[in-house]
Fold these 2 entries.
Entry 1:
Amino acid sequence: MAEAERLLRAAGFALTTTGDALLVTRRFRTDVDLRPLDENLLSRLLDAAVEDADPREVMPAVAGPAGWTRERRAAFLRFHRTRSLSAHPVESTYAVLLAGPAGGPRVVGAARLAPVPEQPLTVEAGLWLRRQVRGEGLGSAVLRQLAGLARAGGAAHMVASTTPENVASQRLLSALCTTVTRREDAVIARLALGDAWS
Ligand SMILES: CC(C)(COP(=O)(O)OP(=O)(O)OC[C@H]1O[C@@H](n2cnc3c(N)ncnc32)[C@H](O)[C@@H]1OP(=O)(O)O)[C@@H](O)C(=O)NCCC(=O)NCCS
């Protein structure tokens, strides 16, 4: 039992003894926050992406040599200015802010919610984080916050898709979503936003 408790704690679970029972709950990061993107955050977001992410992870494909070319940086800004920052936004984008020991929160990635036109009350979620902070439970915390925002915005379902090769993304989605459909070219996850997300 002691060994099981040690392993559970190491895996990020909180253990509480209540009478004869041992309550096991999953701990989520509380040092992460989503703030609606604005011009100031957009410039910090571009810095985070250029420093520590691959363009293919964070924006639609742009022709040309690999890496953060001048054209790709411009396309990144244009992408956000024509989607969430336009006069008629087609999606909501949030900067992922990570609290630090000093100097205020850092922008470490982006998360978005976009209505799915052919599916009423359904939004599509997407997110990316800079490499430095991946694999530390941040993605799970962000996805949960997105689900809360989607529900608060009136959505009944949240969907997300990834590629069969993207193991981290699949694990992230499988842990939260109610159904996960695996196709040859894509993995599609769906979460019913019930009362728990209010
Ligand atoms: C996908 C992404 C957002 C995940 O965020 P993250 O903070 O690294 O994820 P977490 O640390 O919360 O881990 C989520 C799950 O993935 C697993 N995981 C994380 N990194 C992994 C890796 N490199 N390989 C395998 N599993 C991994 C974790 O163990 C965890 O699984 P568990 O809940 O079963 O323990 C991040 O890797 C990323 O930004 N990738 C590039 C962009 C991208 O692929 N976006 C698609 C999102 S739909």
Entry 2:
Amino acid sequence: MAGKCERCGQTILPDDAVCWQCGARLMPASGAAISPTGKDDADMPAIAWTTLAYLAVSTAVILLLLVWMMIILAQQPLL
Ligand SMILES: [Zn+2]
């Protein structure tokens, strides 16, 4: 039987970590394998810095390619 969110009362799934309706953190299920090491200093979801760096590099490469293509297209035709 699925539980309910303590904040908004929305029906939630047992595997949900946060309520998809209001975003409230849900109580971990009994016997959960996940055990955070007591570091609960922020409510923001943990984003891996490697993922953030990958996205930043990908964006920079795409922007450089766009600028390079604009420079190429702006040149006078050789013939
Ligand atoms: Zn909720």
